[in-house]
């Protein structure tokens, strides 16, 4: 019998410094078993029009799940056909009740959006803290892959941010989202976005990986409903060789930067036409370093689909395969045209059936390997930003 050793033949390389270098290896999520989450201090779902009034919870309908998995499988096959290695997570039984010494939570969530959880920075994959109890154990879905990469790539740095306690002290209110829903978007922005405070307290560092936009040496991290100031402070100390820029956009309930501010290639980023940056320094920094920021095209939809917590701006949640090639959701014709005019080969990918399971093409993926090196794309900095 072959002896098991820690270090085996290096079949795998983990490395990715930005969102645009040539993609060679990626994780694509799986929709199976995804839940409308049971209520918890971090989240209260209330979708009476779709059969899930607060506080009910349960799996998303099977026929929706089948359609989503079909689109995910087709997307994975498309990437493989282009020579990109694709791995898939292992779903757990997300309907199970989970607990830690501090709390009991009646359901988990799912593993469609690996981007939320896995932050790849160079040879490192960092498991984010997450901020919802229903997503506390989600990292387990990715452990079979991370264990394999650890064996196959002797240079892979595998790390996890401190697991948060997520006691009631991490939240201002147990009914935050029920109350928040009653505010108009202008009230949400006035009361919360301008103050950069939603339901997360600063008790402990909390962040989702998808609030980080990777531009080489510069990481742009969004303060959001799932990422607090302590989370950003933790990231700053964890990546001392990077420059971490905290950013906020004019939007009621920000969650994840990848439908708001998205790099396309060196010198070019796509910004949400509605969600304006609240830090003038962001624009200044880009201008100073000869980066162009273009406003995204109008989305194809004016309403999000049933049971979907993401917005219509998934239209700009694109996956860049290399600086000349980009995957865009197939019905987002205006977005496709705009990227075509900007010089990209645009690959249309049908993906809206995946949205209720946690996002678009960027959310549904996590980089393992992009060819390329760490570069400084913003040598002229703005003091204090
Ligand atoms: O703006 O709808 C989408 C990203 C979810 N991972 C939004 C957030």
Explain what the structure shows.
- The protein has 385 residues and is of the alpha/beta class.
- It has one domain (23-370): L-arginine/glycine Amidinotransferase, Chain A, CATH 3.75.10.10.
- The protein is 19% helix and 20% strand.
- A hairpin with a 4-residue loop joins strand 5 (98-99) and strand 6.
- The N and C termini lie far apart (57 Å).
- Bound molecules: delta-amino valeric acid.
- The site of delta-amino valeric acid has 13 residues, from loops.
Task: List the defining traits of the structure above.
3-stranded mixed β-sheet, L-arginine/glycine Amidinotransferase, Chain A, binds delta-amino valeric acid
Tell me, rounded to a whole number, the average pLDDT: 97
Percent range of helical residues: 10-25%
Uncertain regions: pLDDT < 50 for 5+ in a row?
Answer: none
| CATH domain topology | L-arginine/glycine Amidinotransferase, Chain A
- Quaternary structure annotation: single chain
Shape: globular
Enumerate the strands of the largest sheet in spatial order, edge to edge or round the barrel. 4-1-19
Distance between the termini: 57 Å
Q: Could you give the order of the helices and strands? A: EEEHEEEEEHEHHEEHEEEHEEEHEE
Question: Briefly, what is this?
Answer:
The chain is of the alpha/beta class and 385 residues long. Helix content is 19%, strand content 20%. β8, α2 (143-152) and β9 form a beta-alpha-beta unit.
Explain the layout of strands and helices:
Blueprint: E1 23-28, E2 35-36, E3 58-59, H1 62-81, E4 85-87, E5 98-99, E6 104-105, E7 118-121, E8 124-127, H2 143-152, E9 157-160, H3 176-180, H4 185-193, E10 212-215, E11 218-222, H5 229-238, E12 243-247, E13 261-265, E14 268-271, H6 280-288, E15 292-295, E16 319-322, E17 325-329, H7 333-341, E18 345-349, E19 365-370
Parallel strand pairs: 1-4, 8-9, 11-12, 14-15, 17-18
Antiparallel strand pairs: 1-19, 2-3, 5-6, 7-8, 10-11, 13-14, 16-17
Bound molecules: delta-amino valeric acid.
Residues 113, 116, 210, 255-256, 258-259, 310-311, 313-314, 359, 363 line the site of delta-amino valeric acid.
């Amino acid at each position: 019998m072959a002896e098991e050793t820690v270090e085996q033949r290096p079949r795998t390389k983990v490395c990715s410094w930005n969102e645009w270098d040539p993609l060679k290896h990626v994780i694509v999520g799986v929709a199976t078993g995804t839940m409308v989450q049971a209520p918890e201090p971090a989240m209260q779902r209330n979708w009476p029009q779709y059969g899930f009034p607060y506080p009910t919870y349960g799996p998303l309908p099977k026929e929706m799940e089948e359609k989503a998995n079909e689109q995910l499988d087709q997307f994975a096959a498309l990437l493989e056909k282009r020579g990109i290695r694709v791995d898939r997570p292992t779903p757990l039984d997300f309907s199970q009740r989970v607990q830690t010494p501090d709390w009991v939570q009646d359901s988990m969530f799912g593993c469609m959006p690996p981007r939320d959880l896995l932050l790849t920075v160079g040879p490192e994959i960092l498991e984010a803290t997450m901020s919802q109890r229903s997503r506390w154990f989600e990292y387990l879905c990715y452990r079979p892959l991370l264990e394999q990469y650890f064996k196959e790539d002797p240079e892979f740095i595998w790390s996890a941010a401190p697991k948060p306690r997520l006691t009631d002290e991490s939240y201002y209110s147990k009914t935050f989202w029920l109350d928040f829903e009653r505010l108009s978007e202008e009230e949400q922005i006035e009361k919360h976005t301008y103050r950069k405070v939603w339901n997360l307290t600063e008790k402990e560092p909390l962040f989702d990986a998808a609030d980080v936009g990777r531009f080489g040496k510069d990481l742009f991290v969004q303060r959001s409903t799932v990422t607090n100031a302590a989370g950003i402070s933790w990231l700053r100390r964890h990546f001392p060789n990077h420059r971490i820029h905290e950013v906020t956009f004019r939007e009621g309930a920000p969650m994840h930067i990848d439908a708001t501010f998205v790099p396309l290639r060196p010198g070019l980023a796509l910004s949400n036409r509605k969600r304006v940056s609240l830090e003038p320094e962001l624009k200044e920094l880009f201008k100073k370093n000869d980066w162009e920021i273009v406003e995204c095209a109008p989305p194809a939809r004016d309403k999000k689909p049933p049971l979907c917590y993401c917005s219509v701006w998934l239209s700009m949640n694109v996956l860049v395969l290399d600086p000349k090639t980009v995957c865009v959701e197939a019905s987002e014709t205006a977005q496709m045209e705009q990227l075509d005019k900007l010089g990209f080969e645009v690959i249309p990918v049908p993906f809206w059936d995946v949205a209720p399971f946690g996002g678009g093409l960027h959310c549904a993926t996590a980089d393992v390997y992009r060819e390329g090196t760490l570069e400084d794309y913003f040598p002229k900095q703005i003091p204090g930003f």
